[in-house]
Amino acid sequence: xxxxxxxxxxxxMNAPAVFVLLVWMLIPLCMTIYFSFMDYRPLRGVADCCVGxxxxxxxxxxxxxLSSVGTTLLMVGGILAITVIGGVLLALLLDQPIxxxxxxxxxxxxxxxxxxxxxxxxxKNMFMNPVNGLFAYLWKFFGATPIDWLSELPLxxxxxxxxxxxxxxxxxxxxxxxxxxxxxxLEAAEMDGAxxxxxxxxxxxxxxxxxxTVVILIQTIFLLSIFAEIxxxxxxxxxxxxxxxxxxxxxxxxxxxxxxxxxxxxxxxLANIVAIFxxxxxxxxxxx
Amino acid sequence: xxxxxxxxxxIVATAAAWIIGLAIFFPILWTVLTSFKTEAQAxxxxxxxxxxxxxxxxxSVVQERSNYFxxxxxxxxxxxxxxxxxxxxxxxxxxxMAFVPGKRTKDVLMWMLSTKMLPAVGVLFxxxxxxxxxxxxxxxILLIVVxxxxxxxxxxWMLYTYFKEIPVDILEAARMDGASLxxxxxxxxxxxxxxxxxxxxxxxxxxxxNEAFWTLNLTTTKAAPLTAFIASYSSPEGLxxxxxxxxxxxxxxxxxxxxxxxxxxxxxxxxxxAVK
Lengths: 288, 276
Description:
- The complex is a heterodimer of chains A (288) and B (276).
- With 288 residues, chain A is mostly helical.
- Helices cover 76% and strands 2% of the residues of chain A.
- Chain A has 13 helices and 2 strands, in the order H-E-E-H-H-H-H-H-H-H-H-H-H-H-H.
- In chain A, strand 1 and strand 2 form a beta hairpin.
- In chain A, helix 2 crosses helix 13, helix 3 crosses helix 12 and helix 5 crosses helix 8.
- Chain B has 13 helices and no strands.
- The model of chain B has no long low-confidence stretch (mean pLDDT 80).
- Classes of the chains: A mainly alpha (288), B mainly alpha (276).
């Protein structure tokens, strides 16, 4: 079908994209790998080549490594659970015949467009602040002691903030999927006396499978590298240090490039393990 | 009877949806409201809802203090620049993979998406070094290039899915009629591809506008966009809620309005057409 000529042209057209992505991946990555084998601390004037796997050993054996991996998993898992479950419920609700559906939809998707730095700051100061935050007023109104959210429940607070930003995305995608479900099938099931719960479990949920996979894939890509929300709220304190943030602190704050680079490579490896797993599922889904 | 039940159900669903919708939107609404209050009213106990003296003072203070428009211009330059550059590279690439697929096209696509899995933090320091070496640190061009590379896999995927949906028959017919590759692109493909390109462009602008990791770490003053402008408000020296709100409102308004207008197209683009 395609001629020799058009094949050559196609290759030429694809070349710039392949080239820049290759360069983008390889050069910085090779540099990071190189640094990870060095004792490189520019602030102290140390630049010792070739310390073997010392950095890796130190990074992995330090207690902050394991806790940061745990934090990352908890954070990503928590946000995924809230947004996917919340997204399914909200999508089902918005699919009902309601007045002003268009406006409600606009209200619901709005947080998705809010800059992460803005949402983190707004939540931190205007809602979660223990003195002037709106939650503090609410707690006082009911006679309870206000909570200092970001130091007492830091991980929960960040999960909450990020979930608020990503719930719209999940809802939007899942709503589109719900709307493509044939109502005949549901009505037939209803006629046959299937309860609402079993209709949800046997018809709606399987239909949403593909959309849920896509939501999980895309969110995981973005959530593994959460940065602004932590940077602005707790700056990694109180057990909110994810792997990404730990590496960031080693490289930029303590300027231990060797150690941070080893951590960066570990982050790349871990992200790719997750990625391979996810891409398999998506690849399978995209084939049909 | 059945009718009454449906109306009742509709009322319940409407009430529930509106309550949840307003709850989700509330932080944005509250921010916008607070931006028109005085600082005293912003932290009043109990909170004031609408009965305050509306003022525009915060907006002018924010603009005076940190020159909002310069940050805005930086955001516009970076978001638009990286989008245009990205499209220039992504359109030919997606076009070729959609219309002249080879044996390895699927692998190439998967590989491209996998570059998105590279945690930015893993390569931050080399990028900073390269930027300093090329004397590009804190410049628009650096951010344009980096954000373009960050989003390139996503926009190639989006365009690929849109292009895939263009019927090949039409192309074949044009080829039969002896259309050259160039006229094929200009007269046949472009008109059909434009909607897809437009929504890809919108999504890319939104992503670039909100990107924080690279903008915070690769800029200091000259090229700092709105993400950095807002982050500068995170210092604890005095909690100026009204001013923070005014700054936040100004930072999110352009992109929020743009997002609302493009919400329909976003779904398809965001899911690579996997959800219809």
